[in-house]
Amino acid sequence: MTPFHIPDYIRSIAPYIGGKPIEEVAREFGLDPAGIVKLASNENPLGIPDSAKRAMADAMAELGRYPDDAGFDLKRALCEKLGVADDWLVLGAGSSDILITAAMTFAGNGGRVVHSQYGFVVYGLAAQKVGAQATVVPATAGFGHDLGAMLAAVLAVDEDEPASLVYVANPSNPTGTFLTPAEIEAFLDEVPAETVVVLDEAYTEYLDPQQRFDSVEWVRRYPNLLVSRTFSKAYGLAGLRIGYGIAQPALTNLMNRVRAAFNVNALAQAAAVAALADQAFLDASYAVNRDGYRQLTAQFDAAGIAYIPSSGNFILFKAGDAADAGAKANVALLKSGVIVRPVANYGLPQWLRVSIGTKPENDVFLAALPAALQATR
Ligand SMILES: Cc1ncc(COP(=O)(O)O)c(C=O)c1O
After folding, report:
1. 204 with 235: CB under 8 angstroms?
2. How crowded is residue 321: how many other Cβ atoms within 10 Å of its Cβ?
3. pLDDT per residue as tens digits for the range 150-194
4. Exposure of 33 by Cβ count < 10 A (0-12 exposed, 13-18 middle, 19+ buried)?
5. For the chain, is the Cβ count within 10 Å smaller at the N or the C terminus?
6. Which residues are CB-neighbours of 124 under 8 A, at least 6 positions away?
7. What's residue 195's pLDDT?
C-alpha cells in the first residue's frame, strides 16, 4: 500500500498495451530490425506523406514558441472540408485524446458509460480514468455492435437518468465490423438527448465508396452527437498524435475547456494541414489498403482461415481452436520477424489482428503464417 490517497478506480486501471515496437522485437528475438515487418498498430504502411514532412520542416523554426492553442490554420482547413464553423471542432493529441476528453467532460463524477464488447480498449479505460461506471454490451454473433442492446443499456438503470456517454465505433477495432448509416440513424433517433453519443470514425477513410455516409449532417441534426476522427491512420501521422472531434458548440465548448492547453503540438498541426490537402496520398492509402485486403483475404479463404470481414485497415483472424492459439501463433510470428496484435485483452485469445501492409509486407506475413498456425496445434 502506498501512503497516497488513490481511489480504487485508479488503482484498478490496467496499463494500455500497444503493438510491440520493432526495436524491442529485434532485441528479444535477436533479429535484424531491417527485416522485421510490423503489422500491429493499424498504422499506414505508406508512412508519413511527403507533403507533411515539408510542412513540418517549414514549421520547425517556430518550435521555440508554444503551438497555436486555437489551432487556427488546421481548423480553417477542416471547416472548409467539413462545412462547419470552427466552434464545432475540438482538436486532440490523437483521437484517443478526444475519446478521453469526452469521458472527462460528460461522464466524470460518477457518470455511466456504455460501450460494446470488443470495442476499442480506450473506451473502457477512459471510463475508468474518470471514475465512471462502464456497461459493456455483448457483441452480435458477428462480433459487431448490438445497437438495440446498447440502447437498452443506455436506459437500463433508470430511464430518468440514462447513461452519460455511449461509444460507437464505425468501423470498429479490433473487429473491423461496420454499421450501416440506417442502423446508426435509428440509434441516434432513440438515444435520449441527455446521453452524449461518441461516434468513433478512426477508420472512416477506408470505407468503400458505397459504404460512406455524411456523419457531419448527423452532427447538425443531433445536438448530443460527437464524431471523432484521426490523422493516425489513412493520413499517415500516427507518431505526431493528432485527431479531432466534430460536435455542436454546446459540446465542443466544454471539451475545449477540459482538454489540456496546447494539447496538439505545432508540428502535428502543420503536418495535418498538409495531409488534409494531399488527396493523392489519401487515394494511395485507400488503394494500398483495398489491394492488401484482397491479397490477405484471398489467402485466408484458400487456407480455410476464419476471419471477420473488415471495413478498416486490419483483419481479425482466427489462429486456431486451442484456448491459447493467439498467443502461440503470435510468438511464432515474432520469431519470424512479423509483429501482429494479440487480442486476448479483448477476450479473443484464439484470434490475432493483422494490420494491412504493403504487398511485400503482406507477403512476408503470409509466408510466415502457415508455420505459425501449425504451432498452435
Ligand atoms: C477505433 C479506434 N479509435 C481511435 C483510435 C485512436 O487512434 P489515435 O489516438 O491515434 O487517433 C484507434 C487506434 O487504434 C482506434 O482503433
Report:
1. no
2. 10
3. 999 999 876 678 999 999 999 999 999 999 999 999 999 999 999
4. middle
5. N
6. 115, 134, 136
7. 98
Give 337's strand partners: none
Q: Is 200 in the pocket of ligand 1 (CB under 6 A)?
A: yes
CA–CA separation, 283 and 252 (whole Å): 30
**Does the Cβ of 240 fall within 6 Å of ligand 1?**
no
* Strand 165-169 to 196-200 pairing: parallel
What is residue 63's DSSP assignment?
A: T
Prediction pTM value? 0.96
Return the ligand 1 atom nearest residue 172 CA. 1
Would you place residue 1 in the very low, low, confident or very high pLDDT band (cuts 50, 70, 90)? low
Specify the pLDDT at position 159.
65
DSSP conformation letters of 259-325: SPTT-S-HHHHHHHHHHHH-HHHHHHHHHHHHHHHHHHHHHHHHHT--B---SSSEEEEE--SSTTH
Q: Domains, the chain, ranges and CATH?
A: 8-47+280-374 (3.90.1150.10), 50-278 (3.40.640.10)
- Do the beta carbons of residue 106 and residue 86 sit within 8 Å? no
Query: Which grid coordinates are listed for 3?
Result: 501512503
Q: Tell me, what's the pLDDT at 216?
A: 98
Q: Among 91, 177, 233, 240, which residue has the most ligand 1 atoms within 8 Å of its CB, making it the best to mutate?
A: 233
pLDDT of residue 109: 87
Q: What is the rounded CA–CA span in Å between residue 129 and residue 100?
A: 8
